[in-house]
Amino acid sequence: MATFYINQQDSFHLSEAFINVGYLKSSPSMPAFSYDGDLRLSWLSGDGQVCKQELISNPLLKKVEYVNDIESGKISAEAIDLKETTFFIRQQWDDCFQSLRVEKKDEEEWKLIKHLTFSKPPIQ
Fold first, then answer.
1. Whether this model's pTM surpasses 0.90
2. Total structural domains in the chain?
3. Among 36, 86, 88, 95, which residue has the fewest nearby CB atoms (within 10 Å)?
4. Which pLDDT score is estimated for 33?
């Protein structure tokens, strides 16, 4: 599991990472579509080959639901733009992982915002 921080200025860093004993029962599937603000995380081997990719819906766009009218119980939903946030992902560790490329979709193009190198996280 890994926890990341991101803000509106595309400052991005790894806050924490660790390995749980066991296996991840299912791998995240890649959505068919991505939108501006979404992130693409690519785990890379030592020679830069993609080992695994994952799309993350825009973490700075928080979807909330609330009761709009207490008497009727009507629920409304809206999206709130956050200035900063933390989010986590679960990924089965692979010895292929040597670095992480983080890209953000902006105007239909993927733009690099961070390239992190790391070693195998500790087991918890």
1. no
2. 1
3. 95
4. 87
